[in-house]
TrEMBL record:
Molecular function as annotated in GO: Hsp90 protein binding
PROSITE patterns assigned to the protein according to its UniProt record, in alphabetical order: TPR, TPR_REGION
Acidic residues composition-biased segments: 225-236
Name of the featured protein: Hsp70-Hsp90 organizing protein 1
Annotated spans, Disordered: 198-257
Amino acid sequence: MADEAKAKGNAAFSAGRFEEAIQHFSDAISLAPTNHVLYSNRSAAYASLHRYSEALTDAQKTVELKPDWAKGYSRLGAAHVGLGNVEAAVSAYEKGLEYDPANEGLKSGLSDAKAAAARAKPSGASPFGQIFSGPDVWSKLAADPTTRGYLQQPDFMKMMREVQKNPNMINMYLQDQRMMNVLGVLLNVKMRAGGDDMEREMGAPEAEAESTKRSAEPEKKAPEPEPEPEPMEVTDEEKSAKEKKAEAQKEKEKGNAAYKKKDFETAIAHYTKAMELDDEDISYITNRAAVYLEMGKYDECIKDCDKAVERGRELRSDFKMIARALTRKGTALVKLAKTSKDFDIAIETFQKALTEHRNPDTLKKLNDAERAKKELEQQEYFDPKIADEEREKGNEFFKQMKYPEAIKHYTEALKRNPKDPKVYSNRAACYTKLGALPEGLKDAEKCIELDPTFTKGYTRKGAVQFFMKEYEKALQTYQEGLKHDPNNQELQDGVRRCVEQINKASRGDLTPEELQERQAKAMQDPEIQGILTDPIMRQVLVDFQENPSAAQKHLKNPQVMHKIQKLVNAGIVQMK
């Protein structure tokens, strides 16, 4: 019975009926509560509905039930990305790759998460973070009649504590009108609600003086000198061993000097001599391996690295030294690689090195090796003729409205020929039909990247953005496409639809539900956040309410006018 419910859930998911899929998966879980696959599938359905908190809970349960199953970490990473926790997402994807290093989904997810982390601010914090951490947050909320009653509501207090702990979580609660009201109070902004005549009230930010006092630390008395220890007696054997170690170090220094001069044979002779004098320091072996690597004697390099690792484990050497030997071995293996399969052992070696010590250089070498393997695989797999055949199969399934099957063939076509923009356009259409809008947007953007003159790419991208209710972005996309084909009817219709939606906000024609949804979405836009937290723009908005003559001057500034129009389109303010 659980399998039957699971099958129904999979069918509903493939058809884009995610709510129905969740219900079927939940039924299956009630029958088989220890089946990790069911939690994984339900997590994917929650994520498709942007219910990332529930998706995270199910992903965590998946990993708990099956810690060595790579897909569980893929679900975990996707949920963290949806919640804006990109660092946690990176950790999840990396953990999954430890179990399945060749998993393309995990690699792609890791790449996207790292890119998101790189785009974030250095602090990684939401622009609204400071207003929730201020000393007068609670007093402001208690003083305002709109928010005073919230302080008696346990769920509201829990929500506030979570946002204070992690400001990035604010995006989860923007659909809650209470959070919108809190933002209004803390920003001195009165958010416009459906039917209100007063759209915005801005108060000049209060100046807060901060002063810090440092008390002088009492001077510490200098410690009294300790008596020197009595010299230890050294046996002749210990004295000899010490002398050999010192001599080995001198040989190493001579080897280093020869290596810098690119006198490789001399360097090898000195490192070998050092190894004979002292077999308890594996740096002599790894240094000789480096010389062999520089000389192109990769097999000898690999032998020395294996010897260094084996001896290092016997001696319990510093894990950084063992990691260095493994990294050097991986580099030699990459040099020897002729086919994509040859990269497997090199990638595995780099991964082992990272388990010993997470070194940025090793991580870069691992990423380079994985990239080289993928490129070589594509070259080995490249076949435009088969790609065209797969694309035609995908087209047939698309006509039959069998979108998951169509995606399968389009994906195979891209593996055979990754430079065909038409296939990306077709697959974007499939993703859009299934409600997988982020995937559809990604394919549409890739289509435009490959051929900026291919107008179908712009219609695909604009349609996805329109369904995501990002009307301004969709309008820009359609207009960009019209530059290449001014008479394209599909693009012109797209422009008309976007303008209609944008004008609804300007005229105040939105229903209260539409207004709240648009405001919540807008508050997740970094540009909107920047405008509302900009002291200059806050003063501009105050002038619009209290000083009409100054407001007229502001309207002459095109940058200010653009920002005001952005707020109007987002439903935050209304011009009258």
